[in-house]
Amino acid sequence: MNAPIVKVEGLHKRFGDNEVLRGIDLEINEGEVVCLIGPSGSGKSTLLRCVNLLEEPTEGTIEAAGHDMTGPDADLDLARRDIGMVFQQFNLFSHMTILDNLVIPQRRVCKTPKAEAVETARRLLAEVGIEGKEKAKPAQLSGGQQQRVAIARALAVKPRLMLFDEPTSALDPEIVGEVLAVMKGLAAEGMTMLVVTHEMGFAREVADRVLFLDGGVIVEQGPPSEVLANPQTERARSFLHRVLHPAD
Amino acid sequence: MDAATTDAAPARSRMTARQRRRLARGVQYAVIVAVVAVLAAVADWGRIAESFFQFDIAADMFPEVWTSFWNTIVYTLLAFAFGMVVGVPIALMRVSEFAPYRWFATVYVEVFRGLPALLVLFLVGFGVPQAFPGIQYPGGVYGQVAIGLGLTSSAYIAESVRAGIQAVPKGQVEAARSLGMSRTRTMVTVVLPQALRIVVPPLTNELVMLTKDSSLVFVLGVTTATMELSKFARNELTDTANATPLLVGGLLYLLLTIPLGLLARRLENREDHR
Fold first, then answer.
1. ipTM
2. For chain B, which domains are there?
3. Residues 6+ positions from A149 with CB-CB distance below 8 Å
4. Which GO terms describe its cellular component (chain B) (predicted)?
5. Average pLDDT, chain A
6. Which residues 149-208 on chain A approach chain B with CB closer than 8 angstroms?
7. What global pTM score does this model have?
8. Which chain B residues touch A91 with a CB distance below 8 Å?
9. The dihedral of CA B87, B90, B96, B102: what is its sign?
10. d(CA A83, CA A161)
11. Chain B interface test: which of A46, A67, A69, A108 (most B C-beta within 10 Å)
């Protein structure tokens, strides 16, 4: 078996007195789709953000996409090209056109020649189903369209690994599907994905492995058929019950 | 609703809320009319017209006044350009991770925001040349003005731009960093362009302030060719012993500042709709 593409060991993260992550060990293999689920405040997003060092770990080591992220000589800018990230709030560059959102990162980060960057941008926008919006500004697009552009933008610098931080939580229910469809397509192409989500349907269908986090530790993990259908711990059971039957 | 109000306050007169409001407004109108009437009756209109509305004196100011009008614009723009060139880097230092930059920028802003513009102008015009004999400002008085007014302006501009930088959502920075942009690259490509857009309205106001502050330039000792609007109007006032030049000068200032003010308000509204 290949070396894991993500390797987290003994990860702790404290914000002041608040210890959000209390010892996380995690390995993700190339091509694997891993969903992080758990109640709010369980540390899912913090764990995700530690993988590309948007949050600096208090303790522990992280290797991702072949880079020693926590090492003394880590070149984070270089490493982050290999680790795409999609945010809950999309975070498209609001002063740039849709096309420039994809072109400028390639030009500035990878020094891609302009013609090639534009070509890549057009191809990616077509792949996520955004067409005829090249000259529009992000604010003119719907949330679902913005998030699909954000996925395309992350892909523009050719990452080997994609992090998704609650990518559909800011969307109206009826447009969640269009974003999930793009993510499914990406998973089918073999992209390694780490996804923080509340979409249990997506986790069940797409994930190779589901991690249930609570109180800053991984409480339970395994294939979705086990963790989601037959949770072993009381905490996971009650969480899943609340998520799947919110009206009860 | 009305019934409830009257029930709650039976001591009040039997007027409804609306009637009370109408009465209050009527009283205010009456007061205003009375004040205007008294002023009109008391004022010596002939005297006022003689002091401020002498058409031949006003006409005599032209076309020479245009030189000073033009100088006012040039001084303002020079000071603003200097203020931007210095103010933006100071703003960047204010938000720097490197503490000495922050300290320097904080001291700079506090000093030049705290000192009167007039005093800074004196320092540049007379203090510095005395301390460093032989110093030559590029462009003579124009260079002195650019620096003298620009230093004060740069402190205000730096504070506006810093506020603009901090108003850019954190997510924009995170997105840029997650794509592999360095801190500097992120600042130049993502944060500053958005920050400058945010601060266009306050910077337009700064331009209005500078237009008026350009009237301080007279302390540097100016010639007819380098005179700005206030000095010109004051000279005319002395020459003619009449206040009409002040009125003309004032109107010319408003010709500059009112459009700028309107522009600032329009830009502010545009930002709201974004």
1. 0.94
2. 64-272 (1.10.3720.10)
3. A90, A92, A98, A101, A102, A125, A128, A130, A133, A138, A141
4. ATP-binding cassette (ABC) transporter complex
5. 94
6. 150, 153-154, 157, 163
7. 0.82
8. 169, 171-172, 174-175
9. negative
10. 5
11. A108
